[in-house]
Amino acid sequence: MTTPHPASGQENPPGTHGPDPTEHTHWGPLRALLNSLDDDIARLYTERGVHGIRPRFTMPLIRLGRRGPMTIRELAESLNLTHSALSQTVSALRREGFVSTRPGADARTREVELTASGRDIVPFLEAEWRATEQAVAELDAEIPYPLLQVVRDLEAALERRSFHDRIAGRLTDTGTGNPST
Hints:
By secondary structure, this protein is mostly helical. The protein has a domain at 39-143: Arc Repressor Mutant, subunit A. Helix content is 55%, strand content 7%. It contains 7 helices and 3 strands, in the order H-H-E-H-H-E-E-H-H-H. The protein has helices spanning 27-47, 58-67, 72-79, 83-96, 116-142, 147-160, 163-168; strands spanning 70-71, 99-103, 110-114. A 3-stranded antiparallel beta sheet has the order 1-3-2. The model has no long low-confidence stretch (mean pLDDT 89).
């Protein structure tokens, strides 16, 4: 049996019930805000003639510029990222010509180092990082509840009960409200 969608009056596809859950979200505004901030940083890169750089490249490039060549695992750990996520970023950085990789100390590792293009862009990225931190501090001063306090409060709440456990406790097998077994 299909259920009419309240906004369109059309029936939902089989296996779906009620309104589209992505249309009413607590998560969406936060994701949209973070995407908007990243988009503004990317726009700044374009305006400054910096090509091939995405905001997610900034931390790894600065870290390599400061510490020199590192294995993907070392770099990931230093940035508090997963090996998988950083491996994808390194692949993109290599395609853009900002890093090169070579075999590490053993056959299972790859060492990442800046190319000349990567070294050339690091001073701009460090300046942009500092300017971004200043802009965030300015925003923080404009709001009644400091952003870092929000983060600390959320971290404390998640220490009490993880996000995973909060989701798992509400997840259902069929979407009908019955908890998973």
